[in-house]
């Protein structure tokens, strides 16, 4: 009798779970915002952003600018970014390199993707420790990396990767390769299109209903992504973009309705709030509101796509990238780190190296990153002025975190320790390899407290000194150092 009752209870539980998952959402923000964000996203912490398209053929822009905006800079003779520009830099470069009569659209024929090996990409991303990838399936130039009939039809020319350029479905190859791993599949798709004949105020309703929404549905129905990363809605409202209707379809009817994650860049929301499963920002330093998961995105340099004009000093160092990740995760966020393959589909060696360096660090310290949440305090400061500011004009440099940790300017405080937490453990991540004592302020031990260093198998001595936990770290020989760039103390069962 007991066994039968338990089976009935289990069946009811499964039915309740199914009904919760299969909930039909209404076309209201109250209903759509009630959908819980799939837990995988908040636990992932580290993703990779791939900007790759026909702009990857010229691969050039002035330092401090987004290279993927090449067409816009070329056509409008203006530039935005870190630096002082005349505005004609791209135009001048383009005419000298390709000639005055060479139209941007002709880059599509030169975009061959001969070195594109999606399986090799996937293996690299696994080694890097990334948990999700976001590929630009269509950027602001409107060129699609999958056989989008809307792209070619509405431009009146072949304008997708199957019809012109590689003559391949690049999105399918990418998706198939990632599906062989545990990495989640994400797609970036641009709302705006600079040159579309339909992307005009008087035709925008037609653009949305005939072009944009069918493209989104095509991607979702054809490839079943785990994440959609929309961008560039300009100043058009959610009523024009039909965002509620699109979200309702994705959350209630699409083949990925229970698992997909949406970002927050789908419209200028008329209620003044942000909507989507998580919040985004780029090249910044501050945490986002805590009512939803959030993500910081940035490139390794000052461009998301590959800019061959950038030199090694323009790239974030491995320590800068790792401490940037730690800084963001300590505040409860994710890092989406940008890379840019060249026009042939080859990921530049310096980007490969940085990803592998991050992966080596995560092999040892991933326990303190994946699946964690912000603790009661996110960081511990030294004495001094905490208000150091990056002097970059617009985009915060990837190595600015070093000035806040290991290389401060005179008089400024540093973040000595970052904290994350998971289950019954707190992780204290140290930007400097400790010598002697480490004092963790306002950390209270219990009778069950245990202190270890991730990747180091020898015991650490510690004691409670008032409100502080004092840990004795022995001198560690070179051969015993568990990793580079940052080191993690695991504190089990502290209050």
UniProtKB/TrEMBL annotation:
Question: Its GO CC terms?
Answer: lysosome
Pfam families, alphabetized? Alpha_L_fucos, Fucosidase_C
Residues the UniProt record annotates as site (May be important for catalysis)? 297
Keyword Oxidoreductase attributed: no
Could you list this entry's UniProt keywords, alphabetically sorted: Glycosidase, Hydrolase, Signal
One GO molecular function term? alpha-L-fucosidase activity
Where does the signal peptide begin and end?
A: 1-20
Recorded hits in InterPro entries, A to Z, give:
FUC_metazoa-typ, Fucosidase_C, GH, Glyco_hydro_29, Glyco_hydro_29_N, Glyco_hydro_b
- Every copy of the Alpha-L-fucosidase C-terminal domain together lies at 415-492
- Span of domain Glycoside hydrolase family 29 N-terminal: 16-367
* The keyword Signal belongs to this UniProt entry's keyword annotation: yes
An example GO BP is: fucose metabolic process
Q: What is its EC number?
A: 3.2.1.51
| Gene3D superfamilies for the chain | Glycosidases, Golgi alpha-mannosidase II
Xref: PANTHER family: ALPHA-L-FUCOSIDASE, ALPHA-L-FUCOSIDASE-RELATED
**Per the similarity annotation, which family is this?**
Belongs to the glycosyl hydrolase 29 family.
Functional description taken from the UniProt entry: Alpha-L-fucosidase is responsible for hydrolyzing the alpha-1,6-linked fucose joined to the reducing-end N-acetylglucosamine of the carbohydrate moieties of glycoproteins.
Recorded protein name is alpha-L-fucosidase
């Amino acid at each position: 009798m007991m066994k039968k009752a338990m089976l009935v209870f289990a069946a009811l539980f499964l039915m309740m779970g199914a009904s919760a998952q299969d909930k039909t959402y209404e076309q209201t923000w109250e209903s759509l915002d009630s959908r819980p964000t799939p837990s995988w996203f908040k636990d992932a912490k580290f993703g990779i952003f791939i900007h790759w398209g026909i702009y990857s053929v010229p691969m050039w822009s002035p330092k401090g600018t987004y290279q993927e905006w090449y067409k816009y800079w070329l056509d409008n003779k203006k530039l935005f970014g870190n630096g002082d520009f005349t505005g004609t830099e791209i135009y001048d470069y383009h005419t000298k390199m390709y000639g005055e009569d060479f139209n941007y659209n002709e880059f599509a024929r030169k975009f061959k993707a001969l070195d594109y090996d999606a399986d090799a990409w996937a293996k690299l991303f696994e080694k890097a420790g990334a948990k999700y990838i976001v590929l630009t399936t269509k950027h602001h130039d409107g060129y699609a990396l999958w056989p989008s009939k809307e792209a070619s039809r509405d431009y009146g020319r072949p304008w997708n990767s199957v019809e012109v350029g590689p003559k391949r479905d690049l999105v399918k190859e990418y998706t198939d390769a990632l599906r062989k791993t545990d990495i989640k599949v994400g797609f970036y798709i641009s709302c705006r299109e600079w040159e579309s004949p339909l992307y005009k105020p008087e035709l925008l309703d037609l653009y949305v209903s005939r072009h944009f929404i069918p493209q989104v549905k095509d991607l979702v129905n054809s490839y079943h992504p785990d994440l959609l990363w929309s961008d560039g809605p300009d100043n058009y409202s959610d009523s024009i973009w039909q965002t509620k209707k699109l979200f309702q379809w994705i959350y209630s009817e699409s083949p990925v309705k229970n698992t997909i994650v949406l970002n927050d860049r789908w419209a200028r929301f008329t209620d003044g709030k942000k909507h989507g499963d998580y919040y985004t920002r780029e090249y910044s330093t501050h945490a986002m509101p805590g009512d939803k998961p959030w993500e910081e995105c940035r490139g390794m340099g000052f461009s998301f796509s590959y800019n061959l004009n950038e030199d090694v000093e323009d790239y974030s160092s491995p320590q800068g990238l790792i401490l940037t990740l730690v800084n963001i995760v300590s505040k409860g966020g994710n890092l989406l780190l940008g890379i840019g393959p060249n026009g042939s589909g080859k990921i530049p060696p310096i980007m490969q190296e940085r990803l592998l360096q991050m992966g080596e660090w995560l092999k040892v310290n991933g326990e303190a990153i994946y699946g964690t949440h912000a603790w009661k305090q996110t960081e511990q400061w030294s004495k001094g002025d905490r208000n150091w500011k990056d002097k970059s004009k617009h985009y915060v440099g990837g190595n600015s975190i070093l000035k806040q940790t290991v290389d401060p300017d005179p008089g400024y405080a540093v973040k000595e320790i970052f904290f994350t937490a998971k289950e019954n453990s707190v992780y204290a991540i140290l930007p400097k390899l400790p010598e002697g004592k480490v004092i963790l302020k306002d950390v209270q031990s219990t009778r069950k407290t245990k202190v270890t260093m991730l990747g180091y198998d020898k015991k650490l001595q510690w004691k409670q000194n008032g409100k502080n936990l004092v840990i004795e770290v022995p001198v560690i020989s070179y051969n015993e150092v568990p990793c580079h760039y940052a080191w993690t103390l695991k504190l089990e069962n502290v209050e």
